[in-house]
């Protein structure tokens, strides 16, 4: 009974093959155009770092391409749906399929199945490729396009508060008790926020409690004198490892398991995690938006082409698709502000536009 929902095997393969080729063509076009524009706007910053050249530009392109694919794959499916169905409608192929007894849903079935397969691929691609590329590119940008850290746990330009005091480290490597800070500056301040002393050192290791600063130099603001110390000095006695773990989380650079651990750490420290929970759910609902696109763009493929309304139907299909992305981003923003629960912020746009697409299709074609 399930297979009866699809047209014949030959027609299913024909529709799926045509749809996939159109998706690839649109996606390649979008990615190349957007990558060229992105390189034009960022190439000056990349080449500003001494020693960077064509190789670094290619490295940047290789890191940006996965992000562009992940972001514009749903758009490509929407445009491919409209192009495929509008062309078939104009060539009377849709009329022939309906004359043979196929309903609109049966005609769309191969496209929806193809979109489901692409959604699964998109999820795996995001988890395995996009998150790593985003994390690497983010670290590279923070290093002003210098050498990319080999350690995935490496963080750059880290600010931490220890009561009124502030600790700055140019680089933090490792995790847990093996964490090492490099190029460390520690500012001791009074209750009014005025600086009393400035400590500088090449390296700091976790001393449980506090951090042991190596090669320390201290500058006393009052007498305006600076001196170097012969032995390591303990700084930031109340600064624990948990504050390093509670760094700013970039959900786009973390896979689902990693983001789950970050959310648990933040909640254990009493931090607000509504935005991150919404993004956690969106890592699942986002790729599934590929399944919506054939449904929203289907309005372009039905109706009589000779009626002169084909262009209007294509515009309506594009409007429905782009409206979904606008509402989806707005819902995520509302969820980050606490206006929507995380689950609702991630899934409400998907369910809403699924119902809209079904309603338009049923009312106009079924």
From TrEMBL:
Membrane topology: Multi-pass membrane protein
Entry keywords, A to Z: Cell membrane, Membrane, Transmembrane, Transmembrane helix
Pfam families assigned: LptF_LptG
The name this protein goes by in its record: Lipopolysaccharide export system permease protein LptG
Domain of life: Bacteria
PANTHER family found in the cross-reference section: SLR0882 PROTEIN-RELATED, YJGP_YJGQ FAMILY PERMEASE
Subcellular location as annotated: Cell membrane
Signal peptide positions (record): none
Organism of this sequence: Croceibacterium atlanticum
Main location: membrane
Gene Ontology cellular-component annotations: ATP-binding cassette (ABC) transporter complex
Biological processes per GO annotation: lipopolysaccharide transport; transmembrane transport
């Amino acid at each position: 009974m399930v297979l009866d929902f699809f047209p014949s095997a030959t027609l299913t393969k024909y529709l799926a093959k045509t749809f996939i080729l159109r998706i690839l063509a649109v996606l390649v076009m979008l990615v190349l155009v957007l990558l060229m524009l992105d390189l034009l706007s960022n190439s000056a910053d990349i080449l500003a770092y001494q020693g960077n050249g064509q190789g670094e530009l290619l490295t940047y392109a290789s890191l940006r391409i996965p992000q562009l694919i992940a972001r514009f794959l749903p758009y490509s499916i929407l445009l491919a749906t409209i192009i495929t169905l509008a062309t078939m409608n104009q060539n009377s192929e849709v009329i022939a399929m309906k004359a043979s007894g196929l309903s609109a849903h049966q005609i769309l079935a191969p496209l929806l199945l193809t979109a489901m397969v692409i959604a699964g691929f998109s999820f795996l691609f995001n988890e395995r490729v996009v998150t790593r590329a985003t994390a690497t590119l983010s670290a590279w940008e923070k290093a002003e396009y210098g050498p990319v850290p080999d350690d995935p746990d490496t963080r750059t330009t880290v600010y931490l508060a220890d009561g009124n005091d502030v600790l700055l480290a140019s680089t933090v490597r490792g995790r847990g008790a093996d964490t090492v800070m490099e190029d460390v500056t520690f500012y001791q301040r009074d209750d009014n926020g005025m600086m009393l002393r400035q400590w500088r050192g090449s390296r700091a290791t976790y001393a449980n409690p506090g951090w042991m600063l190596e090669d320390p130099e201290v500058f006393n603001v009052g007498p305006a004198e600076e001196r170097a110390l012969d032995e390591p000095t303990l700084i930031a006695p109340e600064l624990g490892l948990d504050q390093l773990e509670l760094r700013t989380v970039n959900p786009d650079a973390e896979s689902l398991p990693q983001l789950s651990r970050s959310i648990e750490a933040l909640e254990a420290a009493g931090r607000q995690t509504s935005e991150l929970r919404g993004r956690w759910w969106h890592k699942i609902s986002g790729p599934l938006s590929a399944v919506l696109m054939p449904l929203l763009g289907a309005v372009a493929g039905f109706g009589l082409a000779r009626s002169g309304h084909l262009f209007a139907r294509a515009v309506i299909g594009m409007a429905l698709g782009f409206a979904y992305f606008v509402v989806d981003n707005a819902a995520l923003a509302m969820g980050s502000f606490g206006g929507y629960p995380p689950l609702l912020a991630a899934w409400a746009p998907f369910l809403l536009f699924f119902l809209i697409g079904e309603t338009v299709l049923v009312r106009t074609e079924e």
